[in-house]
Amino acid sequence: MPLLEVKDLRVHYSVYEGVLKVLNGVNLTLEKGEKIGIIGESACGKTTTVKAVMRLLASNSIIAGGEVKYAGEEVLKMPKKKLSDLRRKKMAMVFQDPSAALNPVFTIKQQLYDIIKFSASTKLSKEETHETAIKYLKQAALPEPDRILESYPFMLSGGMKQRVNIAMALVSANELLIADEPGTSLDVTIEDQVMRLLKKIVEENGISVILITHALGTVKNFVDRIYVMYAGMIVEEGPTKEVFNNPQHPYTQMLIKAVPKLTGGGVPEGILGQVPSYLSPPPGCRFITRCPYRMEVCETTPKMYESGHDQKAACFLFDEGHRSK
Amino acid sequence: MSNPILAGEELKKYFPARNGTIKAVDDVDFQMEKGEVLGVVGESGSGKTTLGNMIMGIYPPTAGRITFKGEVLPSRAKDRPIQLRRDIQMVFQNPASSLNPRRSVRQTLEVPLTATGEKSVRQRINELLETVDLPVEYADRYPEELGGGEKQLVAIARALATNPSLIVLDEPTSALDVSIQAKIINVLMRLKTRLSLSYVFITHNLSLMRNVSDRVMIMYLGKVREVATTDEFFRNPMHPYTTMLLSSIPVVTEAEEAVKPQRTQSVGEIAGALNLPPGCSFNPRCSYALDVCKEVDPPLIEVALGHWCDCHLYPNEYKKT
Amino acid sequence: MKSGRSLSERYGRYWYKFRRNRLSLVGLGAILAIVFVAIFASWLAPYPSSAGLYVNFAAAGQAPSWTHIFGTDQAGRDVLSRVMFAFRYSLMLMGVVLSITVAPGVVLGLIAGYYNGRRVSTLIMRLADIFVAVPPLLLALSVASVLTPSAINAMLAVSLAWWPWYTRLVYSSASSIRNEDFVRAAELVGASRWHIMFKEILPNTLGSILTKVTLDCGWVILIGASLSYVGLGAQAPTPDLGTMISEGSRYLPAQWWITICPAFAIVVVILGFNLLGDGINDMFSAGIT
Questions:
Q1: What is the pLDDT of residue C4?
Q2: Does any domain span residue B172?
Q3: Which domains does chain C have, with CATH numbers?
Q4: What are phi and psi of A270, to 5 degrees?
Q5: Is the separation of the CB atoms in B122 and B140 below 8 Å?
């Protein structure tokens, strides 16, 4: 049984202009010990998807359909107490801005101790809490953990803060860790270190990971499988290597082409056009407005068709009945 | 280089702090040709933004001077004659804060135009919007109605309104998605050719630099570590920090992976700019550190034609025949 | 320049944010009602003569009933009518004080924020500090007692105590907005100081200024009532909430309505402005679109 199953998830937001129909039937699965990446550009719905999984959606959100199952149990309608247990002991999230997740007026010790206390199954003594804290800080490769405990967040660099966040997440993430753009606000040499460390930790502890990012390069070295999202739909999924070397969906192909390459090749072309408005999205495939291969049938919603090597793409180009490629 | 459009000599910017001095820019020399894109690459604390601010006159240098079109630039922007101020413009990193949220695009673009009593402002605004590939209807929109890329295009239009010769671009696309970044960069490159502009392009993205700049300048903790033409730089990166940077870049294709230096891996934290270690400030993280590196700060010397590096591993100056 | 936006497009979003909270609407309703009553008191009051020199000892001291909803006071005057007319004085006080203090306070705050770090700024802020250090009621009392007790002097006194809070508020916003990229950009293209202060910085501080003005409406009325309570505001027989509370306190607890009803009116006014202020704050907050 997969650890996490998201089936046909639809999430809308109620705003001044109307209703934003963001998620349009998102499907994903995560097996135990697996690492998946969700890549997509801003406002494509990747953060909305994981927030739905953790039930952290904003108050103006509407769950318009679908289900989320964690270890076989429905999450969206789970009673508060059970959900709280899940969050305390099984899953955790690392956010993009390392400073935002740490309370500036408390020491790391105070914050870390709180987390350890809340996620423990039994009451821990002061020494035990302290030892646990040091253990997690060491696991996150933080030098001089005692000094870090006594520090306030502003005394630490961005990379160190993010490692503290990872340590805090590991305390309660025994099974699932969700990382939302964890390296985006870090310098590139520090991001490289942090991501390598994170990979080592999750592999050693068998933790399943959902990594969300818009930086294609970051996700490539980290995850086993990739989901590519565009305007609230999953457009492609498959093993990392295959999706990058042999992208199937037109959007994925154009996205990879749009990244400037270290090997040269000039300034890449962007993708012509714009993301459709969520207020009145196109009825079928949402990429229709920008796709060079659009056909009439694209006005209906495509399913995920098998294609490439163990990949799936939501595109009629791969539908037997409409093969034109 | 004869007749560089912009040059900096022995530039220093020190900020006093409670327990020491922050040497944001420490003895930087650089030169730039007209029509060139000079890529200034560095991470946080490298001094690249401070350098950009000094060129704009936002911070006066603690020492050293900047010359523009052969004349020394007054340190503060307000001491510069209006025409000079308008000749050098800037595009900022964060599109959200570079436009006043309470003013429409039209009102934002009016500011540079009315400051010199320009007639036919309305027409000029339409021209500017067309130049950056934005529909003229956008003039009445407010920043909250624009996407990040569109905001940045408005910021570029604003910078162009004064017909500058030099634009300092401080991480103009770092906050944007990849597909939008490509669009903005295309607009910038097209404009450079059409309007004969020179760009100081500040960024940390080496993949972007590879495809955009004519020369690359790497900065770390306030000092220039390596300067070379783009081709030479990527063919033959020298400084250990450069190789560390190159090895850390997340890349997308197998071909790029092959190009990255394999043996160097990023280690250590970027030192605080306060209380720098003696000698070469990179030595705590450098896997090639020699004893001399801990004591003596290496000078920036021309190690190959047009290729400068400050590292004890390359002590020999290039002999011009 | 003709703009392509209609008023409803531009401001509809503000109204949407305002009405999301029901209580803000309650506040708005209460205040609109009070303003309406104050303006049309002459027509709405059941016993308009009660607001002036009027004595009818036969009807004195009657408890609240259907004929006199707030009862009658010691001179036989209808308390409800007096409260309605008293709203006029309160709202007038509030209008005058705020129109004298807000503009100068805001301008000084803008200057202090723009020139932050320079002598002008320090001068302005220390001056503001001096006035802030004295408790407003005390300052108002001292000034009002030196001059002859009257409505105008009460307003003057309250104004002196009020302006520095606007300066502080605007200074704190302006000094940080001043360093934003868009202000830098305007400076770099040669915009004048005045343009930057009034066209770039000020519009971004409007939210907090308007919220404060709304909340202050209630506070000014309260302070005005406190001044009247000790006899330094409007003089008899002009109906005034503070004076009514003061005079009526002598008749507690037996004829409680003479004091309690005007006090209740003050509570409603202040609560109304507070709720309205909450709504205005929501309007300007960057929230759910």
A1: 52
A2: yes
A3: 15-47+75-284 (1.10.3720.10)
A4: -85, -165
A5: no
C-beta neighbour count of B261 within 10 angstroms = 15
- What kind and span of H or E run contains C225? helix C202-229
pTM, two decimal places = 0.86
Please spell the DSSP secondary structure of A275-296, one letter per residue: PPPSSS--SS-TTGGG-TT--G
A13 within 8 A of A20, measured Cβ to Cβ? yes
Helices (H), chain B: 48-56, 82-87, 95-98, 105-114, 121-131, 148-160, 178-195, 206-212, 230-235, 240-248, 254-259
Inside any domain, residue B319? no
CA angle, corner B138, sides to B134 and B144, nearest 5?
110
Which residue in B132, B179, B213 has the most chain A C-beta atoms within 10 A of its own C-beta, making it the best mutation to test that interface?
B179
A271-297: pLDDT as tens digits: 888 888 899 998 989 998 889 888 888
Number of domain units in chain B: 1
C-alpha distance from B76 to closest chain A C-alpha (Å):
30
Alpha-carbon gap: B86 to the closest alpha carbon of chain C (Å): 6
State which residues form the domain around B233.
Answer: 6-309
* C91/C239 Cα distance (integer angstroms): 13
How far apart are alpha carbons B277 and C226 in whole angstroms? 65
CA-wise closest residue to A34 among A208, A276, A260, A237:
A208
Domain with B222 in it: what CATH number?
3.40.50.300
Does the pLDDT of residue B282 top 70, yes or no? yes
Report chain C residues whose CB lies below 8 A from the CB of B89.
Answer: 188-189
Query: Which three-class secondary structure state does DSSP give residue C34?
Result: helix
Asked if B227 and B239 touch (Cβ cutoff 8 Å), the reply is: no
3-state secondary structure of B13: strand
- Tell whether B242 is covered by a domain: yes
Picking from B86, B94, B108, the nearest residue to C190 by CB comes out as: B86
Considering the domain boundaries, does residue B251 fall inside one?
A: yes
Q: What are phi and psi of C254, to 5 degrees?
A: -65, -55
Are C204 and B100 inside 8 Å of each other by CB? yes
Residue ranges of E strands in chain A: 4-15, 18-30, 35-39, 61-70, 73-74, 91-94, 176-180, 208-213, 225-230, 233-239, 305-307, 311-313
Q: Indicate if the pLDDT at residue C65 is higher than 60.
A: yes
Give yes or no for a contact between A231 and A276, defined as CB atoms under 8 angstroms apart: yes
Query: For residue C289, is pLDDT > 90?
Result: no
Structure token pair of residue A264: 């040269």
Say yes or no for a CB contact (<8 Å) between C289 and A15: yes
Whole-number pLDDT of residue C44: 85
Q: Are C77 and C47 in contact (CB under 8 A)?
A: yes
Terminal-to-terminal C-alpha distance of chain A: 36
Helix (H, G, I), strand (E, B) or coil at B304: strand
3-class secondary structure, C37:
helix
Identify all chain C residues contacting A43, using CB atoms and an 8 Å cutoff.
Answer: none
Subunits next to A (3 or more Cβ pairs <8 Å) are B, C
With bands split at pLDDT 50, 70 and 90, how would you rate the model's confidence at C279?
A: very high
Higher pLDDT, C56 or A92: A92
Q: Which of A155-164, C91-100, C164-173 has the highest mean pLDDT?
A: C164-173
Interface of C with B in 64-123 (CB under 8 A): none
DSSP string covering A93-161: EE-S-TTTTS-TTS-HHHHHHHHHHHH-SS---HHHHHHHHHHHHHHTT-SSHHHHHH--GGGS-HHHH
pLDDT tens digits for range B250-271: 888 888 888 888 777 788 777 7
